[in-house]
């Protein structure tokens, strides 16, 4: 009887829960037919201030940002993994600016077209939730956690930021909020962490499935988020 109870209890005892935190850089760009590496700025001089925005802010060039998160995961008796991860991201995609359309005021009909230089970033602030299934592989010195699953991002701010020069050296700079019809982005995410005792090196890739320009009428424009995260993690066992 005692041996039977021990046999039943052994798989349960082999299961445990871990809590981990992660921090690192987020490398962000857009893919899809309307993602661009170059764009132009619509710029307006308001006297004491100025404002403007990028015509197509969905840059295909990689920009850097910040990625933070916390994770709870269950390690099964056969090294199966079930993980839930909550995160915060400050991401920037990037494109080069090669032209500027200038208006001296909101009441003026004049529009000047100038060659320009500089770069602009679409800055995105997100909260993320990732549900991952996977497996833990064990070696003599390290453990490797491999996870995959859906990720949902809530986008609570999009902002155009950039600077450069136009018309032979005149400075331009923008920092303006951008409207966005959908606040959600659904992604597929793959995640790997290599653990050495409590310290880990983490990498993940998120492939966006929702079109950021789905609200545009009369066009088939498509842009999707592409995110690579690289960082360190620490776990409690």
Give the N-terminus to C-terminus distance in angstroms. 32 Å
The order of strands across the largest sheet is 1-4-5-6-7-9-10-11
Number of helices: 1
Number of strands: 11
β content, as a range?
A: over 45%
Radius of gyration: 23 Å
The largest sheet is: 8 strands, antiparallel, barrel
What are the low-pLDDT stretches, counting only 5+ consecutive residues below 50?
A: 1-13
State mean pLDDT (0 to 100 scale). 88
Order of helices and strands: HEEEEEEEEEEE
| Count of discrete domains | 1
Q: What structural class results from the helix and strand content?
A: mainly beta
Helix content: under 10%
Backbone shape: elongated
Organism: Hymenobacter arizonensis
Protein name: Outer membrane protein beta-barrel domain-containing protein
Describe this entry's structure for a reader.
- The structure is a single chain.
- The protein has one domain.
- 5% of the residues lie in helices and 68% in strands.
- The protein contains 1 helix and 11 strands.
- The protein has one helix at 2-14, and strands at 16-31, 38-45, 50-54, 63-75, 80-103, 112-138, 143-166, 170-177, 184-196, 199-208, 224-236.
- It has an 8-stranded antiparallel β-barrel.
- Strand 2 and strand 3 form a beta hairpin.
- It is elongated.
- It starts with a helix and ends with a strand.
